[in-house]
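Exercise 7.
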Amino acid sequence: MKLLEKLTVLASVTMLGVSTAVYIPAKNTNAAPDEYHDDWLHVNENAEIVDMNGNPVWITGCNWFGYNVGSQVFDGVWSQNMHKMLNDIADHGFNLLRVPMSTEILLQWKNGDPDPMIKINEWENPELTVEGVVGGTPMYSFDIWNKAVEWCRENGMKIMIDIHSATTASSGHQVPLWYDNNFSTDDWLEALEWFADYYKDDDTIIAIDLKNEPHGKNDGQGMAIWDDSTAENNWKYAAERGAAAVLGKNPNLLVVVEGIEVYPKFEEGGTWNSPPIDYSRYPYSDFHGAWWGANFRGAREYPVDLGEHQSQLVYSPHDYGPLVYAQTWFEKDFTTQTLLDDYWYDTWAYLIEEKISPLLMGEWGGFIDEQHDPTGNNKKWMQLLRDYMIDKHIHHTFWCFNENSGDTGGLVYDNFGKWDEEKYEFVKPSLWQNESGKFISLDHKIPLGQSGSGISLSDYYIGTEKPETTATETTESDIINFGDANLDGKVTIADATAIIQSLGNSDEYALSRQGEINADVVDNGDGVTGVDANAIQAIEAGFISQTDFPIDKEVLDAAINN
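Solution. The predicted structure, written as tokens, is:
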């Protein structure tokens, strides 16, 4: 006999003239939660990136390149143990790894083509050999990549790949567009679609950055534009096509869209066909200039449209200091306000300031030591941007882990063997951590890292009354009492009533944060639904007991039907 045939209480609850059925769809979830489906992220109406329960998260990661330049693996694996380096990145508090790739390598993996070369040290990396022994035969690069995915998963660290270039090459990022003479837009779409499909059941990979730094300034080398046309070089149009390819296979992925380089000064008669921007004469030009991939002026009038999947869109500028290029906004004694006035606000900051979209600063970083930065201006810029990102809760991935980035340096040195502690301590305040200094994972179950320096996302939100970038540790008072939605210390029909009322009118009858945690008793992790109220009714009817919580819906249904 069905539960609803035996119970009449709360079959529906009528309040304030609204009849609320018991079975109400889960909120903020697009996939059944389990070990590979409970960490997908989405964007809410407040331009926040949130988890399946609607809790804001903070992506604070770093970049590690190699797959885009011909190594067929992360750079540095030629000398150090890859597993250890991944552990170290997680232990240092980076909760996401942005990994530059090429269209070429993704299509190579899709088609099972052989590696042209592979740079690993087989003596330092026996886990990456076919035989699993020191000095063995290196695995195929895609198999090595999947070991990296596995080890990131074990560390509670998520992954975002970035299509850094079409063709694999150390200078591939200098090509301004997502296609080149070797790989077309269709090839790019094919690679994106395949990758999204391959990992659609693994939430270790939570985002795809569709193209690194589209750029160009009408100098005959190719130029990314941003308008409402269907021109092949229109980045907005291409990004919408790329997003459709990705989200058609996995609608839960975050789609990360960068900007372009220049945007016409239409108010002064500029057009996309204006003469090339001359940075030596800037701002005396028909274009507004920016760093490559950083110009979002077009997004105000022509926002990227992902249709029913708009909640998966994240805009991603890049920003650098005067050691990379002496931009005009660095020519004065710059401050946060002058940077906003002269460059940041109209170029990208308006998106977060006006709550149009979350921002993910995909690349930022540089030298801060006196040898490379004798004036201290690069460190000054870096600190201003770091503190602005902390203040505005801007997600970011630091550039970079690699020591072999010529104009920025990295987090390590001595052939990837030692951490630059000065630079790391500078970056550390911008990493997501609680008041006790524990780094926070984007994984609901797995703490970040192996050293005990991190906690899981669920650990963070238990006992956190409201989501902020810092929080207190879990205490004994935060122990979950499953079923006690109204926090009266008991599990009764009153708790089911509290759940139904909260679902029908959350403004007046909202559960407390701890109440929500206690109430999520069926398929724990999918949020509070009417099914949780049914489960509490099932206790009243004698089908199950509180000790069965949390419970899988299939088990609950079997208990009721039997």
